[in-house]
Amino acid sequence: MEIFLFFVHFLFFALVQFIKSLQNIDFHILELINHNRFKPLDNFFILITNIATVVTYSFPIILLLFAIVKHRFLLQRKSWLILISLTINSMIIDIIKDNVKRLRPFVTHHTIHNLVPVFSYSFPSGHTGEVFMLATSFTLLFKSKKWWVIAVWVWAIVVAYTRMVLGVHYPSDVLGSIVISVFLAFIINKYLIKLDFLKEKEMPSSTSTADQ
Question: Rounded to an integer, what distance in angstroms lies between the CA atom of residue 13 and that of residue 18?
């Protein structure tokens, strides 16, 4: 029995030390990014992070309005699917954030330079979740639009980077958000497609419902 308890204590101690090591690596990577940023680009990164949510949600909304004007049913449904995915993803990330209650890196470590005001918790990154949900959903729904796919992924990567370079998120906040959002994107899209969410209405042959 004593040997068993010793083994359990040893495993617990090893786990704690492993977690501390990961946290130290997490902090040092953030410190490296934050301290070695190209400062003349600070205002650019601040602009990107400030408009990230508006741009991300505006993209499917503009796509939806275009589809409505052009009477393209399938394109409308794809736009709605992206908006639904973004909304569900944001809700789940907010729930996780409020339960994990991880403090922002600049609160815990005063050596981190915070360049934008934030008042919520740190894990996972909401901005990163939004842009990676958009990028993944768009890729699943518009595989043939290669240049647009590349553009949304570049957007996602740039936004995720700004969250670290501006000192408001640990790398693990960003990585965790990417994993959550990509996973949810596959689940939500596959589920709604399975429910025939993208199934076109039967319309007269003279009416075109071609996808764009």
Answer: 9
Span between the terminal Cα atoms of the chain, in Å: 68
Q: Structure pTM?
A: 0.83
Phi, psi of 168 (to 5 degrees): -105, -10
Q: Which two tokens stand for residue 39?
A: 């400062």
Q: What is the pLDDT of residues 4-37, one digit of tens each?
A: 555 555 565 565 565 566 678 888 899 999 999 8
Check residue 41 and report its DSSP letter: G
Number of H helices, E strands in the chain: 7, 0
Q: pLDDT for 148-194, tens place per residue?
A: 999 999 999 999 999 999 999 999 999 999 999 999 999 998 888 88
DSSP one-letter code for 137: H
- Contacts made by residues 137-140, CB under 8 angstroms, sequence distance 24+: 137/81, 137/82, 137/85, 137/86, 137/185, 137/188, 137/189, 138/82, 140/185, 140/186, 140/189
Distance, in Å, from the CA atom of 49 to the CA atom of 162, rounded to the nearest integer, reads: 6
